Amino acid sequence: MERKEEQIEKMTKMGAVPKRNLRQFIKEKREAKASKTEPDKIQGTALEDPYKPTYDFQMVFKKSTAYGYIPSMEHFSPWDPNFPENSVRAVAIHDAIQPIIGRLDIIDESHFIDIDDDELLSLAHHRYGIELVRRLCANANENEAQMYDSIYYNGEESFECAVNAAKMAVTMSKFIAEGVFQNGFANIRPPGHHALPDNPNGYCLFNNVAIAANYLLKYNLAEKILIVDYDVHHGQGTQHMFYESDRVLYFSIHRYEHGTFWPNLKESNFDCIGDNEGTGYNVNVPLNDVRLRDYDYLAIITNILLPLAYEYNPSIILFNPDIILVSSGFDSCMGDQKGNMYVTPAFYGHVITALSGVAGGKICVILEGGYCITSLADAGLRTVRALLGDPPHPLEYTTHINPAVISTINDVKFVLRPYWKCFQLDPLLPIDNIHAFDRYNQHLVVKRYIGVRERPPFPTKGYYSCLNFSQQKLVDACIRYFKEDRYNLNETVIGYMVNEESPLHQPIVTCPTQEVQGRLDDILKKFRDFDLLDRMCHFELPLKNNRPTIWYEVEGHILQVHDSSYLLDIDYDNLPKKPDIYVCLSSRDVCRYSICTICYLAQKINLNEITHGIAIIRPPGHHAKEGEAGGFCLINNVVVATSFIAKNCHYKKILIVDFDVHHGDGTQELTYKSKNVMYISMHRYDDGKYFPKDKTGNYTYIGSGPGYGYNINIPFNNDKMGNSDYLFTWMKLVLPLSYSYNPELIIVSAGFDAGINDPLGNYKVSPETFGHMVNMLKPVAPMILALEGGYNFETTSLSMVNCARALLGHPLPMPVLEDVSEETKKTIQNVLSRAKPLWGILEVNKSCDPTMRDISDLEDIVKSIDDMTV
């Protein structure tokens, strides 16, 4: 084990902050900024070796998933046998995961940390609070229970159950923080996130998550912790305990309805963002409507949670959590009468998968609420499968985001804007007339609280509603439908293929070029060096008469995409001579092999033999048009493959995402009028002056005819784009658009020439950033990475390594993020101006008025404000 001094030195070289000097470090940053010190002269903002983060993860692989089970059978309400918080909840989840239990490492009471009960509980609770719960449980008096909101206990057994639940949460989080396990699911009860330091509350006796977080902090197992709470009720206990801390970022999505939903607290609103050192570290996302669906919640994840989780800006704010603790309440899931939301069980798997790129994939999921047993069990199963790395089921698509959710997202971004750079991508613009303004593009931030806090005595039975027989049958039918998972795999399997014929496509000695076989050779070498080859399935094209079995069918699709006379020109080397084009006798056959490789991987995906695929191929293809070559591209590999796949795999919607630094003008031209193929391209444009120097690469070109709206260009102009520009643009545009299209397959035109040190791209995107982009996109649909450009061997190969690691579910190194450039902000707004009217998920993007108002200030226009959410 490294000595502390060696760890500090290592972290400093990586641009990280020595944990014991965090506050001093932030102080120095602020002082440096105030004195206008150059950013690259501030310690830790520049990497001496841009490839070091990836090499530091060379032998870091995904560890096993832990599972802990504390059903607390002895803890039940002695006054109400039908009370919804009971052991059936934990048992139902436990039963649901039995088909995969053999893939989990079981933690039981024999593994518990050795700690005195009072010492453990005092990590989050006052001594008075501990003794209060102990006395209440010992007396088991219903009248005393009525003095505390929604509390029951069954003698001293309840106290012991609550202690064991907390011990499981602490033990599992400790093992994960120490690297014994990658992640884990604590199927425990009673829940905890409502428990306050000095009294129990909301079915919760002790705060499991808060105890676990404070244990990790106290024993230096973590310096920074992200707590994600998506239980439908606000975890006011957890918020209270960390409200003044900058070491714990608390994020909560909860039903609120302006304070009329339990726990009816003003401090559950969006404007409660922490205090003192914790200002900006408490994030409430209050939901002011019911029956919200997957895409409403997804908009919150992509617009609020992921940007927060990823922001790592040493010159302004440092978070970059060491571990994620999830207060996993499933009462927002369909069928739950408490939550009255319509979120499908699949949603939770998407959240866990998206978060797995952060904190080295260290995630401890701790059960909170959830009272519809059918949906609870399935949601728990899908959560565990996501922790294992299995592909999640597609989400339920909705055309538009609920207006109340749109309002809340903008409220949250506004109040956090001064503390987090990621929320400064949208402009602040004064609203001249608050009685009448453009509500589609502008947002007025208004605080509103109309709740009434409940007072004792509180009821101990019969104050909840349950599903009737018809409602339960409907929920059961929905869950059965969602279980028909189109991936149908027990585990994620990645297939990779190499165009073995590609060495035959080579330039003559007198024609030097960057597009050479060494690009592929170095990728394979790095895969071998990073021990990835044996972790994936290698496929070779099945041959017949020395040709791939799908050779002639692929040729037919080539003829559908490209002009026959143009193809003859390739065969006979009659193409116009250009510096970026070369042809030899084998070039067309090599292109055929590249296309066959993509198609074969797609067939394996369609047969559920693999989850995702990697096609290591050349020459690239995305510049090839119907009758014109360009940019090293002769035949458009991806478009021809898309034609083949649509016919043979019966896919009606295929998404092509292209992050090559050059605009894929050929791919755009060949798919421009189709709605069966959506094309999204992030590329360097420089006002049309950068290759391919075609005006059609601008944001104004969005498709035509049936394909109108299905071509999205994200053109960057006149700046040297880096990690922040790519990563936050990805979250802001690419990810929500990809989810909205809801494709059956994604093909990524994976060009890495936007990578650092590339001789053609001249951008500064680090290899690890591409891995995180792929990790966020992979839950949307099965994916094939098809190599395009990338001409610095080291950058290209390490970028592909990180993409492969992302698909495999291995921990990823975090990129160092600087400020998003002003040019990127302009690009985002330009794209939104065209895409927002066509894709409802983008309606969340608005400019905000710079002033936050209270509803009491607007009594004369209350009705006008109400109309904003109708």
TrEMBL record:
Q: Name one GO molecular function term.
A: histone deacetylase activity, hydrolytic mechanism
Q: Where is the composition biased (Basic and acidic residues)?
A: 28-41
Region span, Disordered = 28-47
What is catalyzed by this enzyme? N(6)-acetyl-L-lysyl-[histone] + H2O = L-lysyl-[histone] + acetate
InterPro entries, per this entry? HDACs, His_deacetylse_dom, His_deacetylse_dom_sf, Ureohydrolase_dom_sf
Q: Which GO terms describe its cellular component?
A: histone deacetylase complex
One GO term under biological process is:
epigenetic regulation of gene expression
**Locate the Histone deacetylase domain: which residues?**
84-385, 517-806
Q: Which PANTHER family match?
A: HISTONE DEACETYLASE 6, ISOFORM G (PTHR10625:SF38), HISTONE DEACETYLASE HDAC1-RELATED (PTHR10625)
Name of the featured protein: Histone deacetylase domain-containing protein
Source organism per entry reads Rhynchophorus ferrugineus (Red palm weevil)
Specify the taxonomic lineage: Eukaryota, Metazoa, Ecdysozoa, Arthropoda, Hexapoda
